[in-house]
Specification:
Bound molecules: 4'-deoxy-4'-aminopyridoxal-5'-phosphate
Order of helices and strands: HEHHEHEHEHEHEHEEHHHEHEEEH
Distance between the termini: 55 Å
Strand order of the largest sheet: 2-8-7-6-5-3-4
Strand content: 15-25%
Number of helices: 13
Largest sheet: 7 strands, mixed
Structural class: alpha/beta
CATH architecture of the largest domain: 3-Layer(aba) Sandwich
Number of strands: 12
Shape: globular
CATH class of the largest domain: Alpha Beta
CATH superfamily of the largest domain: Type I PLP-dependent aspartate aminotransferase-like (Major domain)
Radius of gyration: 20 Å
Length: 357
């Protein structure tokens, strides 16, 4: 008896590995800092509205997510036809690669960057072209531009970059886009956009609106604290947004997620004030770690990056974090990523940085 086989690229595809959950230990409160989640619970009003929507789950959700499209269009001042919602930004990544790439095509992205990119590329049977980040964990945009060939269909620019935390500036992005041929789709993955505090920060909306080949990805998972509901969205020129909507699984954004998304946009100011608090914590963490003697890169997301030279050192650091009740995310052999969490968790991280041999 023989089993049907998937395409070879799919057979070679690893499953996505999620951040480890904390293991409760007697006498020690443990914190999950392994998935760049928002440590704040959802706002009260959002939970109530989501709970009320859960009472309607015997019915399919609105297939067109009309209210959420309208709320996003209003919040960002863009036409709804330039938006595409999906089951997290990660689903949009898969939709983009499978819509624009086939087995003959190449997808360029920095490495390390978000682990879902190479998986989406394998799922489409395309070829991943990984361009190493600089020693400081930044995108090497010159090398990425040089890696573009006639076969390149998609380029991902992840900014802030997961897991190294560095951001591309608008000037750098503009210079890069000027070098990218028009047949190439540039996906600016701004999953952590709301956490960016820097001069010359990217204006994702203005960038996609002035070009025919730029898509900007955003999510409700990070700044909005709705990771468990799985809603992401893309800003794109109307024809690309239409393609993304056509590639979406029917009813992918569930009834509770739609309601929570609308409720969150109504409370955007309150949520963004929490983001400010997380950014203040991030500054405290970065300064504390640097004061302990580490040369860590600029952190523009809700996480910090410890670069190491070997898989062993990554494992040692993760084990030491585990000892003090912090679950972190090793990316051997390059480094370990740690999310900004509750104040107590952040303080423990600073202490760990000071004591790690
Ligand atoms: N892009 C980046 C850079 C990310 O780090 C993540 C989440 N880890 C995503 C996209 C996906 O976010 P979600 O699917 O939760 O919207």
């Amino acid at each position: 008896m023989s089993t049907p086989q998937p395409r070879p690229s799919v057979a070679a595809m690893p499953a996505y590995v999620a951040g480890k959950p904390p293991v409760e230990r007697p006498g020690l409160v443990t914190y999950k800092l392994s998935s760049n989640e928002n440590p704040y619970p959802p706002l009260d009003g959002v939970v109530e509205i989501a709970a009320e929507a859960a009472g309607r789950v015997n019915r399919y959700p609105d297939a067109g997510s009309t209210e959420l499209y309208d709320a996003l269009a209003k919040a960002y001042g863009v036409p709804a036809e330039e938006l595409a919602l999906s089951t997290g930004a990660v689903a949009l990544i898969f939709q983009l690669v499978s819509a624009y790439c086939g087995p003959e095509d190449e997808v360029v992205f920095a490495w390390r960057s978000f682990e879902a990119y190479p998986i989406a590329v394998l799922a489409a049977g395309a070829t991943a072209v990984k361009v190493p980040v600089t020693e400081g964990g930044r995108h090497d945009l010159d090398a990425m531009a040089a890696a573009i060939t006639e076969r390149t269909k998609v380029v991902f620019v992840c900014t802030p970059n997961n897991p190294t935390g560095t951001s591309v500036t608008q000037t750098e992005l503009d210079a890069f886009l000027a070098k990218v041929p028009e047949h190439v789709l540039v996906v600016v993955d701004e999953a952590y956009a709301e956490f960016v505090r820097m001069d010359d920060a990217i204006d994702g909306i203005a960038t996609y609106r002035s070009r025919a080949n730029v898509v900007v990805l955003r999510t409700f998972s990070k700044a909005y604290g709705l990771a468990g509901f799985r809603v992401g969205y893309a800003f794109a020129p109307a024809p690309i947004a239409a393609t993304l909507r056509a590639m979406a699984l029917p009813f992918g954004v569930n009834v509770v997620a739609q309601a929570a998304g609308v409720a969150s946009l109504e409370r955007q100011a309150e949520l963004l004030a929490r983001v400010d608090d997380l950014v203040t914590e991030r500054t405290r963490v970065v300064e504390g770690i640097r004061a302990a003697g580490w040369d860590i890169p600029d952190a523009q997301g809700n996480f910090v990056w410890f670069a190491f030279e070997s898989a062993e050192r990554c494992a040692e650091f993760a084990a030491a974090a585990d000892e003090v009740g912090l679950v972190v995310r090793p990316y051997p052999p390059e480094g370990v990523r740690v999310s900004i969490g509750e104040a107590e968790a952040n303080t423990r991280l600073i202490e760990l940085a000071g004591s790690f041999p």
